[in-house]
From TrEMBL:
Family: Belongs to the peptidase C2 family.
One GO molecular-function entry: calcium-dependent cysteine-type endopeptidase activity
Protein name (record): Protein DEFECTIVE KERNEL 1
Entry keyword annotation includes Membrane: yes
GO biological process: proteolysis
Species for this entry: Hibiscus syriacus (Rose of Sharon)
Domain of life: Eukaryota
SUPFAM superfamilies in the record: Calpain large subunit, middle domain (domain III) (SSF49758), Concanavalin A-like lectins/glucanases (SSF49899), Cysteine proteinases (SSF54001)
InterPro entries hit by this protein: C2_III (IPR033883), Calpain_cysteine_protease (IPR022684), Calpain_domain_III (IPR022682), Calpain_III (IPR022683), Calpain_III_sf (IPR036213), ConA-like_dom_sf (IPR013320), Papain-like_cys_pep_sf (IPR038765), Pept_cys_AS (IPR000169)
């Protein structure tokens, strides 16, 4: 493809203007501005809250709608985040600009002359705070010296013209999370791009490089003769670097995460003090039926047990130790006791976490406080979010909590953790039923999966011994495990002591003296335990085995051992959460919406689904790489007026059967027809919040294409695609 051939492309930028005028997007051709978008502040008759967009061809101003400035009243300059998208259609010679996906009513198109060079491959697109050429091109010479300031959060570039549905879908998917800011002009770094000439459209586009401002001389002069200040805050991209997502790398450290959580808690404490109040009551999750039930007008009978809400000091009255505390010594799995709520799945995950001494990290200030303010952190869509709760506890009688509590009557942490998770989901009732691995993912930020022991693959792995080896490896690597018993039995508790349709903690996996054993915990934390071989009082125990496994039997703690063979008979599922350091996670956010909700390969619209390229970089590109890929659906955020987040989980939105395919298509979007040799892996379609697959990818210079889908077209939902790997990779939309 020759360098002068014209191409269609699209560019989108997420911005937060603070003052103007600001040139957001621009391109130059033969030292002339071909087109630009101006985000204007309160300047020269352009009122704050308005945006001017125009096209300049060969130095002569052309406007989008009228002969003068195209001005449309919007709220773009009020400090909110906005997404401005420009699409260039080379076939019909038209450019279209969208503000916030067109949802704010601002969408306009304009014709482009064929000879202005704007579509030529190699054309540079300038993104930044100040215009790329003289200020007189704006017709606003009095703007010289005006301080301009803007934050850029993310930049997208495609080598094609997006349609209206895709622009709307892009807006929705971007707004489902927050990306790392690229700040101008305070930031010590700016982005500059000067790639080599690319003659072949299919050639790999170069990466964006960072340059220190002191090392690059951007000084120049306006045509009016006034010297422009140094430091052209912005960056340049090429239209042949399409389908790339430019982000300033930023990974929060553990201390930074905790500090961010703590700042939220401190803000609540300061507000409480300013009101002159002694004890905190959370109005977002009040101590009444609104917090107990999904529909307070139609509460489930089994949960109508709460008679009153009590503070910890009232609950512990009459107990031997009447001083409430958050933790009474180190947390232990045996501390966790389930109440009247059917959230064994969550409490099993909590118990597993105490086994590896990580539960105290979840509660930000692990000390009891008189104000009753506690902040719990959860990892949602790869981002740690704070949930602040008070210490009002629902009770079924004076001094007796209705739901989860600690075996130590004066210890508060179990009740606080459950309350925070209930607030995250909207109510206590919303915690009725769930999967252990989902809770483990939310508590740790890891990657979850469920192993169905009835599946054909699991049966093969059981017969070969591979599944047992996997469990040993999971424990050695620090993964967290749970187990689920089969449901549908005629009795709630089987004759062998296993609760039916129940979630358990899988605490240990051991092979000692030829015996394959697992240690399991029932979150009821009572005498309901396994009573078969290797149970607390069974004859299999010898002094040597007790010593080797440090087994001290207790009749009413819910913890027991059983053989691996018996486990296969009495349990149906194994839940796994692999815990990775933050730098091993690569995530992109997407959405099946409208055009892009294409369904599975049984439909002609399959290729319309969002597609992503995964490519190893650097030295890792020459060797096979091990990857663990997850697809998570139906999770989104909304922000309250106070700035806190509400979590929309699978309880609040319809769950679909989802799956994904991993293809070897030279880094391109997959077409409708896929050849057998192109498919390298994937998943079955499962009705679950998260699905996953693990594989080793052979070196492939162009990378692999990942296609996440629902099973039927028209099923709309947000999703997150994550790749966990030690290798250096790029995960980007196609």
């Amino acid at each position: 493809m020759c360098q002068s051939q014209k191409v269609s492309f699209s560019i989108a930028v997420m911005i937060q203007p603070e003052s103007g005028p600001v040139c957001l997007l621009g391109t130059e051709f033969q030292k002339k501005v071909c087109w630009e978008i101006l985000v204007a502040g309160s300047e020269q008759g352009i009122e704050a809250g308005q945006v001017g967009l125009r096209l300049i061809t060969k130095g002569d101003r052309q406007t989008i709608v009228s002969k003068e400035w195209s001005i449309s009243a919007t709220s773009i300059a009020d400090g909110r985040w906005h997404i401005v998208t420009m699409t260039i259609d080379a076939d019909i010679g038209e450019a279209t600009c969208y503000l916030d996906g067109g949802f704010d009513g601002y969408q306009t198109g304009l014709p482009l002359s064929v000879g202005n060079g704007i579509w030529e491959q190699g054309t540079e697109v300038w993104v930044g705070v100040r215009p790329p050429i003289d200020m007189d091109a704006f017709g606003r010479s009095d703007s010289e010296g005006v301080e301009s300031k803007m934050h850029i959060m993310d930049v997208f570039l495609w080598g094609r013209c997006l349609n209206e549905d895709e622009v709307a879908s892009l807006h929705a998917s971007i707004c489902s999370t927050e990306f790392n800011l690229i700040d101008f002009p305070e930031d010590n770094w700016h982005w500059a791009y000067s790639p080599p000439r690319v003659d072949d459209w299919d050639s790999d586009p170069a990466d964006v490089d960072l340059y220190d401002r002191d090392d690059v001389d951007w000084d120049g002069q306006y045509s009016s003769g006034r010297k422009r200040r140094s430091g052209r805050e912005g960056f340049v991209v090429h239209v042949d670097s399409f389908a790339r997502r430019y982000r300033k790398p930023r990974i929060e450290t553990q201390d930074e995460i905790n500090q961010r959580m703590l700042s939220v808690e401190m803000a609540v404490k300061e507000a409480l003090s300013a009101r002159g109040e002694m004890h905190f009551t959370d109005n977002e999750f009040p101590p009444n039926d609104l917090s107990l039930f999904m529909d307070p007008k139609n509460p489930p009978p089994k949960l109508q047990v709460v008679l009153e809400w009590m503070r910890p000091a009232e609950i512990v009255k009459g107990h031997s130790d009447s001083r409430p505390c958050l933790f009474s010594g180190a947390a232990n799995p045996s501390d966790v006791c389930q109440g009247r709520l059917g959230d064994c799945w969550f409490l099993s995950a909590v118990a597993v976490l105490t086994e590896v001494s990580r539960i105290s990290e979840v509660i930000i200030s692990p000390e009891y406080n008189e104000e009753g303010i506690y902040t719990v952190r959860f990892c949602i869509q790869g981002e740690w979010v704070p949930v602040v709760v008070d210490d009002w506890i629902p009770c079924e009688s004076p001094g007796k909590p209705a739901f989860a509590t600690s075996k130590k009557a004066n210890e508060l942490w179990v009740s606080i953790l459950e309350k925070a998770y209930a607030k995250l989901h909207g109510s206590y009732e919303a915690l009725e039923g769930g999967l252990v691995q989902d809770a483990l993912v939310d508590l740790t930020g890891g990657a979850g999966e469920e192993i169905d022991m009835r599946s054909s693959q699991a049966q093969l792995d059981l017969a070969s011994g591979r599944l047992w080896s996997q469990l040993l490896r999971f424990k050695q690597e620090g993964s967290l495990l749970g187990a689920g018993s089969p449901s549908g039995s005629d009795v709630h508790v089987s004759s062998s002591g296993i609760v039916q349709g129940h979630a358990y903690s899988l605490l240990q996996v051991r092979e000692v003296d030829g015996h394959k054993l697992v240690q399991i915990r029932n979150p009821w934390a009572n005498e309901v335990e396994w009573n078969g071989p290797w149970s607390d009082s069974s004859s299999e125990w010898t002094d040597r085995m007790r010593h080797k496994l440090k087994h001290v039997p207790q009749s009413k703690d819910g913890i027991f051992w059983m053989s691996w063979q018996d486990f296969q008979i009495h349990f149906r599922s194994i839940y796994v959460c692999r815990v990775y350091p933050p730098e091993m996670r690569y995530s992109v956010h997407g959405q099946w919406r409208g055009y892009s909700a294409g369904g599975c390969q049984d439909y002609n619209s399959w290729h319309q689904n969002p597609q992503f390229r995964l490519r190893a970089t650097g030295s890792d590109a020459s060797y096979p790489i091990h990857v663990f890929i997850t697809l998570t659906q139906g999770v989104s955020f909304s922000r309250t007026a106070a700035g806190f987040r509400n979590y929309q989980s699978s309880h609040d939105s319809q769950m679909f059967y989802i799956g994904m395919r991993i293809l070897k298509t030279r880094g391109r979007r997959a077409a409708y027809n896929i050849y057998l040799h192109e498919s390298v892996g994937g998943t079955d379609y499962v009705n679950s919040r998260e699905i996953s697959c693990e594989m080793v990818l052979e070196p492939e210079p162009k990378g692999y294409t990942i296609v996440p889908t629902t099973i039927h077209p028209g099923e709309e939902a947000p999703f997150v695609l994550s790749v966990f790997t030690k290798a250096s990779v790029i995960l980007e939309p196609l």
